[in-house]
Amino acid sequence: xxxxxxQPESACLRDCLARYRHVIPELAAIAEPSxxxxxxxxxxxxxxxxxxxxxxxWSGAADFDALLNCYQSLFREQEDLIQGQPVDDxxxxxxxxxxxxxxxxxxxxxxxxxxxxxRFAYGGSTAGVYKRIAVIVAEDSREQENVQRHIAxxxxxxxxxxxxxxxxxAEQYELLHxxxxxxxxELGSIxxxxxxxxxxxxxxxxxxxxxxxxxxxxxxxxxxxxYYMVDSDESFCVNRQTEHGEQIVYALNYFHAIDKIxxxxxxxxxTGKLVxxxxxxxxxxxxxxxxxxxxxxxxxxxSRQHEVCRFHQAPTTxxxxxxxxxxxxxxxxxGGTNTYPYRCRLDGEHDHATCLADFAAQLDAxxxxxxxxxxxxxxxxxxxxxxxxxxxxxxGNYIVNREGLRYIIPFGHLRLRMSGPTAGRLIAAxxxxxxxxxxxxxLHRRTSTGGLGGEFRPGVELEQHRExxxxxxxxxxxxxxxxxxxxFTAEQLAADADVNKPFPxxxxxxxxxxxxxxxxxxxxxxxxxxxxxxxxxxxxxxxSGHWWLKEPRSEAALRNVGAFIDNIAGNFGDRSRAWxxxxxxxxxxxxxxxxxxxxxxxxxxxxxxxxxxx
Length: 614
What we know:
Layout: H1 3-9, H2 11-20, H3 25-28, H4 39-59, H5 64-83, E1 92-99, H6 103-120, E2 125-126, E3 129-130, E4 133-139, H7 144-159, E5 163-167, H8 169-176, H9 181-186, H10 204-218, E6 225-230, E7 234-235, E8 238-242, E9 245-249, H11 254-264, E10 269-276, H12 286-301, H13 352-362, E11 387-389, E12 397-400, H14 419-431, E13 435-444, E14 461-465, E15 468-472, H15 474-496, H16 505-542, H17 555-572, H18 577-583, H19 585-613
Parallel strand pairs: 1-4, 1-6, 4-5, 10-13
Antiparallel strand pairs: 2-3, 6-12, 7-13, 8-9, 10-12, 11-13, 14-15
């Protein structure tokens, strides 16, 4: 290679080494490339720089934004070199995004994929089309207006260079019914048995599993294709806390890291976690959320309404693993009793009455899964290539190769929550370290610009009653309890039995009876704690004579707080529908029969599925 060609092809690399070698000591050990270096050796030069630059970028010791720009530029420049080679043996990606009545979420998700391609350029582009990435939007909407909006988004992002297609319900039904009738009968619990005129809201598991059939149809080289499963309310970026608040950044080259992992290990299934809004139901966050709301009003009571807002303290970034979960200890995480402070989101100088109004206006978002004080922040840790054994599938963030298509998420017909952890326990018991977790989280947003009622959320109903919003998450709460029951039953079975053989009915029944009693005790304790904290909050806000009761500007805020407490009572109190179902021995017996049958059929259904994807 002549100097005339080497210089422009490595300009960003040379600039990075010159600018940062005195700031980042590890770069000083890397010599500047010479004019005699081949393109292949230069490609490896970048690989040496990437982990050094990303570590420095997240260390807090250098200018994050400048390093991020450098980091993205290095990837684009390396990509130009790779595109000049006669062979590129990296993986193609087929991405699947199930979506049900969520156009705003889908737009954010597609935008993030486009931004990822634009900023990192994995696989390069031909005539403006990113050629190594294909995206399937798997339609599950009930409302035709939303179907049309999804189709319009697919068309828009296709024009912008994404190979994205709309996998509509008619095509899904046709593809499903192209399978022999006996196979469809065996797979009814994994796929769906819905009739053609009601082929919508099949559930995330069934819709995702149906999209596997489309993935197989689109596959070119099955030995060189990875399948990336994504939820529509997730984006390919992460959040970082700054002194000015949250910053959303495209700082992870997901495709590059995942391709490298699958090329250098024997992994067949890889999963990443989520940052941003918690990935769990409000049904298991009510105790700690009430604790934090009480803490906010306790501090507010010690402040004057016209003082400059004091809720702009340094951000809390170390929230701990699963700090948002009331039952974190059940999942092996350390529980805690500490409260987390609310950080006001308002800009500019304002007083406490203004802060209260904004805080109270956000409270009902809790019932849609937003936690005002315990958001999860990205932590760099040991880099994007560091793997750990996994036991949970995050359904909106996992990747499999051709062999990994065998390990489907089962039990979709039950519509229970915790399907990912349940499947993960069974898969981990079967393939061990070939199922791994990686630090490549997606940004998770429960709500969108459309407001609380703007996007579909299964199991949560919103009804406007005069000036009050009545939020009913009974369905989600019930599905959470029995999802937990199925998870812990499956976890015990995976530990005690051979997951490659059918589970004996007597063993399944014995385990589920024991887990039911344990779980009922835990839920009863949380039920008592929720009621006790609700009473404390009502007394603190409405019966203690604090300044906001006399502040005319706080009237709307107090109505919002009262509605929030009423919705807590409606969903978690003694008379709530979900609580009555959980306490009903008859209802539990019906659900347990479903779970026992599903677990007993797991092996045969997996075998039937594997005959399709083999």
